[in-house]
Amino acid sequence: MKFKVQITECDNIIKFIIRHKFIKGNSKLTAIKKDNSIMICDINVRYNCKGIGTTLVKHLIQYAKDNHYNKITGWISSVDLDHIDRLKHFYGKFGFEISKSDDKDDPIRIYNLNLSI
Ligand SMILES: CC(C)(COP(=O)(O)OP(=O)(O)OC[C@H]1O[C@@H](n2cnc3c(N)ncnc32)[C@H](O)[C@@H]1OP(=O)(O)O)[C@@H](O)C(=O)NCCC(=O)NCCS
C-alpha cells in the first residue's frame, strides 16, 4: 500500500506524518536534528505491520541523505520489550546497528540504535 507522507519542521524538530482518511489520529515519526545527526524520539503507527512504519523511516532516511546528515540515532526503551522481536527486525532491515545500552543514568533505555548515512 502507498502512503502519502507530510513533513513538518519547527526549529530542530521534524515530523513525518501519515494521515489516514477513515481513521481517527495520525501515524507519525518525530525526530530532533542536532549537528550532523538526527535522533528519532518517537514512532507511532495506527496499525502495525501494514508498511506504515517502513514508509516513515524510509522518508526519514531520504531526508537525512538529501540534507547531508551523516547519522540517525534512536533507542529502544523497556516499555517496548513486549514487541522487541518486531523492533529488532524493523530497525535491522534498514541497517540500524542495535547495541545494548549501558547508560546507568537512563535505565529505561535498553538498546541504542545507530545508522550511518
Ligand atoms: C515498530 C513499529 C513502529 C513499526 O511500524 P509498522 O507499521 O508496524 O512497521 P512495518 O509494517 O513497516 O514493518 C514491520 C515489520 O516487522 C515484521 N514483524 C512483525 N512482527 C514480527 C515479529 N514478531 N518478529 C519479527 N518481525 C516481525 C513485519 O513482517 C515487517 O517486516 P517486513 O517489512 O520485512 O515484512 C510498530 O510496529 C510498533 O511497534 N509501534 C509501537 C510503538 C513502538 O514500539 N515504537 C518504537 C519505539 S523505538
Give the helix/strand layout.
Elements: E1 6-10, E2 13-19, E3 26-34, E4 37-44, H1 52-66, E5 71-77, H2 84-92, E6 97-100, E7 109-116
Parallel strand pairs: 4-5
Antiparallel strand pairs: 1-2, 2-3, 3-4, 5-7, 6-7
Organism: Lacrimispora amygdalina
Protein name: GNAT family N-acetyltransferase
Pfam families: Acetyltransf_1
Compose a concise summary of this entry:
One of its GO terms (molecular function) is acyltransferase activity, transferring groups other than amino-acyl groups. By secondary structure, this protein is of the alpha+beta class.
What's the rounded overall pLDDT mean? 95
CATH class: Alpha Beta
Number of strands: 7
CATH topology: Aminopeptidase
Classified in CATH, the superfamily is: Gcn5-related N-acetyltransferase (GNAT)
Percent helix: 10-25%
Backbone shape: globular
Order of helices and strands: EEEEHEHEE
Q: If strands are numbered along the chain, what order do they take across the biggest sheet?
A: 1-2-3-4-5-7-6
Bound molecules: coenzyme A
Structural class: alpha+beta
Q: What's the number of structural domains?
A: 1
Protein name: GNAT family N-acetyltransferase
InterPro entries: Acyl_CoA_acyltransferase, GNAT_dom
Pfam family, one: Acetyltransf_1
GO molecular function, one term: acyltransferase activity, transferring groups other than amino-acyl groups
